[in-house]
């Protein structure tokens, strides 16, 4: 086993950990980044499957994500706009297929009015409560002790409207059933994107992609760090005191002054802490979990839906695939669709054989875009729930009542141990942007502390 000494040890070579390491080195501190996988990127991963380049993990850039946008500019990475010309498709609960333009689903007049009213309520709550400290608001406990599902039905008697509004938070973001998380958690999700209206607007939240793939963000930062990034080095034990830390990983141990846990909270328990973490940390981590989603990639000889005047965008809260988008790569002659199967629907299809699951998912895609969608040249399912060093997607959220109870302490350091990931972000929560913001902010705090000591 090799032994190293560094000022700061970072656990996890995703966008947050690498952003932290990059900033710390700029501040003149030495770092070691320990990554369990054989690659960098964390929950971003651009891979070639059967000859097709696919974004297995996080990929989109929205206009408000200035932390990520600034980093892309620094790294010399360019973006391109997601294709969204033409009509979208809405599948009603009864299966009726409607083509439409604009942001609002083509439902009944009453359902549309209710969706608009609910959006206004959620926008007002997001503006009042904000993303920085939602747990500190006077309404925090009240909103955190009722599920988003039941709250929506207190606000409206229109089931279709409730399901459609729920889709944007439950299936689209937290990837948990709306009965499994609170209104406060939903409001945090909306506030982190600027408003609930921004989450509803797929043209905003899913605006651009990185040419060549989002994983390049991590790859370029890792290249700058060179030998300070160690792969295939899962951390097993962190021995700490107030002034120092010893991190033991497979094949290497590193002594330092600070350590950054730049992994999702559900993985904290994979590490043995000596002495153990405080009681509150143990309790908090048990109330944070990742959701479940299958990100489906289907590649075709051409983007055939465009010839039919369709954008490739589709929504159907009752469908197996609740969302679908044109995900064609930059200047690629082939067409790629990406669809999402979330929470309980993912449970359902995972109970099927791989062949049955593929057939069911492709049938759902065909319901949106026609029979050609059932016959892709390349088909792939991103299943982060089975990935050893992630175990879910997209990011962690609290169970019912957990956010107001523990949120104030989720970023509080324990001795030399700091916490940094998109799961803990305010702005950019659950996105690459949040990971970058958290990494940079954590680095700034540590650099200030260590400079004072020096």
Automatic annotation (TrEMBL):
EC assignment: 1.4.3.10
InterPro entries: Amino_oxidase, FAD/NAD-bd_sf, Flavin_amine_oxidase, Flavin_MAO
Binding positions for FAD per the UniProt entry: 16, 35-36, 235
Cofactor(s) needed by this chain: FAD
Gene Ontology MF annotations: putrescine oxidase activity
Start and end residues of each Amine oxidase domain: 16-446
Record carries keyword Oxidoreductase: yes
Record: residues binding substrate: 340
Gene3D superfamilies for this protein: FAD/NAD(P)-binding domain (3.50.50.60)
Keywords assigned by UniProt, alphabetized: Oxidoreductase
Superkingdom: Bacteria
Family, as annotated: Belongs to the flavin monoamine oxidase family.
Protein name: Putrescine oxidase
Species name: Psychromicrobium silvestre
């Amino acid at each position: 086993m090799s032994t190293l000494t560094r000022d700061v040890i970072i656990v996890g070579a995703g966008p947050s950990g690498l952003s932290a390491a990059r900033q710390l080195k700029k501040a003149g501190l030495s770092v070691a980044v320990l990554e369990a996988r054989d690659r960098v990127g964390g929950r971003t991963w651009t891979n070639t499957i059967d000859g097709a380049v696919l974004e297995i993990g996080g990929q989109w850039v929205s206009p408000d994500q200035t932390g990520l946008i600034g980093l892309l500019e620094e790294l010399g990475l360019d973006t391109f706009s997601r294709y969204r010309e033409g009509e979208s498709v809405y599948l009603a609960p009864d299966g009726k297929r409607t083509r439409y333009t604009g942001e609002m689903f083509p439902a009944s007049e009453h359902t549309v009015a209710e969706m608009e009213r609910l959006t206004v309520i959620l926008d007002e709550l997001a503006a009042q409560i904000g993303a920085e400290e939602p747990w500190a608001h006077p309404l925090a406990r009240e909103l955190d002790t009722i599920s988003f599902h039941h709250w929506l039905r207190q606000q409206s008697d229109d089931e279709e409207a409730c399901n459609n509004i729920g889709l944007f938070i439950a299936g689209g973001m937290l990837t948990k059933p709306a009965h499994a998380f609170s209104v406060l958690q939903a409001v945090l999700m909306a506030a982190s994107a600027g408003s609930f209206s921004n989450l509803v607007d797929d043209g905003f939240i899913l605006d651009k992609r990185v040419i060549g793939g989002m994983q390049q963000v991590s790859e370029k930062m890792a290249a700058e760090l060179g030998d300070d990034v160690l792969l295939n080095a899962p951390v097993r034990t962190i021995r700490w005191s107030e002034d120092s830390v010893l991190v033991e990983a497979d094949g290497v141990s590193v002594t330092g002054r600070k350590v950054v846990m730049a992994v999702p909270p559900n993985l904290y328990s994979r590490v043995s802490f000596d002495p153990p973490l405080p009681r509150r940390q143990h309790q908090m981590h048990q109330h944070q979990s990742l959701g479940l989603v299958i990100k489906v990639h289907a590649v075709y000889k051409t983007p055939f839906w465009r010839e039919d005047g369709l954008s490739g965008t589709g929504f159907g809260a009752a469908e197996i695939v609740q969302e679908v988008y044109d995900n064609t790569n930059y200047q690629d002659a082939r067409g790629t669709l990406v669809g999402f199967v979330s929470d309980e629907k993912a449970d359902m299809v995972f109970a099927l054989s791989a062949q049955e699951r593929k057939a069911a998912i492709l049938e759902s895609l065909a319901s949106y875009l026609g029979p050609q969608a059932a016959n892709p040249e390349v088909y792939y399912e991103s299943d982060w729930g089975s990935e050893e060093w992630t175990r879910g997607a997209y990011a962690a959220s609290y169970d019912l009542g957990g956010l107001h109870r523990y949120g104030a302490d989720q970023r509080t350091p324990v001795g030399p141990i700091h916490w940094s990931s998109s799961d803990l972000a305010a702005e950019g929560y659950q996105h690459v942007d949040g990971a970058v913001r958290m990494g940079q902010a954590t680095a700034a705090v540590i650099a200030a502390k260590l400079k004072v000591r020096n």
